[in-house]
Amino acid sequence: CVHIESSDFWGTHSILSSVEAGGVFAETYALCGEALMVDAVAAKDCEILFLSLLPLLDGDNAAESWHSKLMQRILLLTAQKNLTLSTRIFCTSAKNVRGRLLTYLSGEAARQGRYEFDIPNRQQLADYLNLDRSALSKELSRMRDEGMLAYRRNHFILYKTEN
């Protein structure tokens, strides 16, 4: 597992995404020949395979049988990454802690197809939502007290409430 993180000059970092075993990251940078503007941090022991994708764009390989299939897969990866980053933008665009949590938890319930699910650890969630962990925990407690959800560590159950 590799976390893609953004860090500022003062050392504050935010987790942009997590890449599980067999996953791909930085393909956009590789295709564009740009320097990586984020950090890839190993969350577990791992091995990374670095590939140069620029030769795919020069046209010399366009007639090869594998070229079209590989380009389709890269396009699909890029589209999936776009969706992942769009989801994060939705989660962090809310102006308050509750709004960010509601967006994230609703999205997880939809993604997992159930109202009971597990999430990464709370520090990772706070980093992902660009929140202070204590503010996250305080808001989760309020939402629990209001009957919106139940949780134990990283396990959550969402409840419908009357508006």
Structure class: alpha+beta
Order of helices and strands: EEHEHHHEHHEE
Arrangement of strands in the largest sheet: 2-1-3
> With helices defined by DSSP (H or I, 4 residues minimum), what is the helix count?
6
Number of separate strands: 6
- As a percent range, the share of strand residues is 15-25%
The major pleated sheet works out as:
3 strands, antiparallel
Rg is 19 Å
Poorly predicted runs? none
Helical content class: 40-55%
Q: How far do the termini sit from each other?
A: 40 Å
Task: Describe the protein.
- The protein has 163 residues and is α+β, with helices and mostly antiparallel strands.
- 46% of the residues lie in helices and 17% in strands.
- The chain is built from six helices and six strands.
- The strands form two sheets. It has a three-stranded antiparallel β-sheet with strand order 2-1-3. Strands 4-6-5 form a three-stranded antiparallel β-sheet.
- A hairpin with a 2-residue loop joins strand 5 and strand 6 (155-158).
- Helix 3 runs antiparallel to helix 4 (97-112).
- The radius of gyration is 19 Å and the shape is elongated.
- 12% of the residues are buried.
